[in-house]
Fold:
Amino acid sequence: MLSANPFAELSTLVPPMVMQGYVVIMIILVAGGTVYDVIHKQSAKYFFDNWRSAASRSTRKVGGGETLSLAAQAAVEGLTSGEFCSVRRRISHLLTMYGFLAYVISTAIIVFWYPTPATPAPSILPQLWYAGALMVCIGGYWFWFFIRVDVAAEGNSPFRIVRADLFILSLLASTTLALVWAYMQTAGYSGADAFLGLYLMATTVLFGTVPWSKFSHMFFKPAAAFEKRVAEANGSRRNLPYPVPKPQVLGSARRHPRHY
Structure:
């Protein structure tokens, strides 16, 4: 199963042009939704206004070489999820992030270059597709049931749903249904077509609700991390006080928070 190309088998039912058109529509929805999100929430205007305000409060000038170094540090922090102090949260985030990248990239390559049995895909591509979907499920369900703030720290039910959960729930639904559909199709079960429809619905929700979900935050976080490092380097510190060297501990020792 892990080496079978599910989209090649699907081509007997759905023409490759239709599959490719669907992927293009999803890309357009993500791009358009992100642009709409930037315009509607004025996040770009806020970012540049905040950048200029920080520059006016700076106590030292940051040179070009130092700026490149800060950008590299921000990139490394993003690629390693270094902003999370909790090891559990970092591992969960890394599994979900890299699993999603493997899942999306392998889907695009297979659909556009190896969509039929006449063009057999290298075995590594279906394996990446399955591995990426499994990584998303492991990291995502671990986060949903055991790491979320309102579950781990506030004691709420893991089945409590708010609008902020739209991205993670649609992502988990897409990857979970993708695995179920691929398995049922490969095994020859008659209900595979129904799960294909559910898989497409979940994927459409995932990529079509960018303005209302947290999908676009993956594009904004690198810029915010870079701006934070520059603010610390030039002394403006976002108008925040410097941290105390060692906090005073009163009474019993504090427990480390579980939600960071």
In short: The mean pLDDT is 85. The radius of gyration is 22 Å. Residues 6-57+86-238 form a domain with the Fumarate Reductase Cytochrome B subunit fold (CATH 1.20.950).
